[in-house]
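Q: Given only this backbone (314 positions), what sequence would you predict?
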């Protein structure tokens, strides 16, 4: 019997399944997954403090600082203000203020000497607070270092992708650039696509890895236009703009490279929908030579495109 020929496909599953649950994009422009989790909530303070913004991080630190010192100030008030030397009793607000600032001095181990605990109870509580302050400073220092030392790719993506003529056909293109002066080596790009397709009367989600003209750069000093030729090897060969829109195509871009500054791998990703593709256009040049500086890379021009005039002649 003749052997059946095996057809090799580049189909894959990116973890979203094959059923069509939503027509919204899978990956947001900032690279985050467009998935909302409900029914179970797991929260950790470490994750919150490392993943939040810098403003959020310092707001948490300030809130913790005021809360802890306020708690110890109330404990000192319960002991009695007479248990602390160098303080004159006054109104409740004045007494709380004195105890709060005494707590701050103990918590931070500053100890100006104007106020001091008297008696075993006050000294034991002050010693406990000094320990809490030392541990808190150690944790805050570790979190701060973790946030500073964590590598983060500052990859700038073009706002739109373009489709233009390329090698006797067409090509899907996006442009990226590194916004920092650090050296990124062995930068690898992977582009996958997902779309809707009717199979046996049911609308299914399909995936495919797209072959790129070049998928790796040894160095990344300038901009890089990532090109997927729309030839016979592409799942979108001979398909036009309206066809892609009906298929609800989304192009998923994933980057991986080595950051020499941090000596670690960095990752970045984004996506493009059909509404973010400009047809019959090409990117304008965003760098030019300079006699003194060598090469000037103008990052503000990453979104600049030029609409091509397509002739109707066959």
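A: Predicted residues:
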């Amino acid at each position: 019997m003749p052997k059946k020929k095996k057809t090799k496909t580049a189909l894959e599953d990116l973890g979203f399944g094959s059923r069509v649950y939503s027509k919204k994009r899978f990956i947001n422009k900032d690279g985050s997954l467009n998935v909302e989790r409900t029914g179970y909530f797991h929260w950790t303070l470490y994750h919150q403090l490392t993943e939040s913004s810098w403003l959020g991080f310092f707001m948490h630190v300030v809130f913790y600082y005021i809360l802890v010192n306020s708690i110890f100030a109330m404990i000192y008030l319960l002991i009695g203000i007479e248990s602390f030397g160098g303080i004159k009793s006054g109104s409740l607000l004045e007494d709380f203020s004195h105890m709060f600032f005494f707590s701050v001095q103990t918590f931070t181990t500053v100890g100006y000497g104007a106020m001091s605990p008297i008696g075993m109870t006050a000294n034991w509580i002050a010693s406990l607070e000094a320990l809490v302050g030392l541990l808190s400073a150690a944790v805050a220092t570790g979190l701060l270092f973790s946030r500073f030392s964590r590598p983060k790719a500052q990859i700038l993506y073009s706002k739109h992708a373009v489709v233009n003529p390329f090698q006797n056909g067409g090509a899907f293109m996006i442009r990226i650039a590194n916004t920092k002066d650090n050296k990124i080596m062995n930068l690898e790009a992977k582009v996958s696509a997902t779309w809707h397709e009717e199979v046996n009367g049911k609308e299914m989600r399909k995936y495919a890895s797209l072959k790129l003209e070049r998928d790796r750069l040894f160095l990344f000093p300038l901009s890089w236009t990532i090109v997927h030729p729309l030839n016979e090897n592409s799942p979108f060969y001979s398909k036009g703009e309206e066809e892609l829109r009906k298929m609800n195509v989304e192009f998923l871009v994933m980057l991986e490279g080595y950051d020499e500054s941090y000596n670690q791998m960095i990752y970045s990703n984004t996506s493009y929908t059909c509404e973010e593709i400009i047809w019959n256009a090409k990117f304008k040049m965003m760098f030019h030579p300079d006699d003194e500086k060598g090469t000037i890379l103008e990052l503000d021009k990453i979104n600049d495109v030029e609409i091509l005039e397509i002739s109707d002649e066959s």
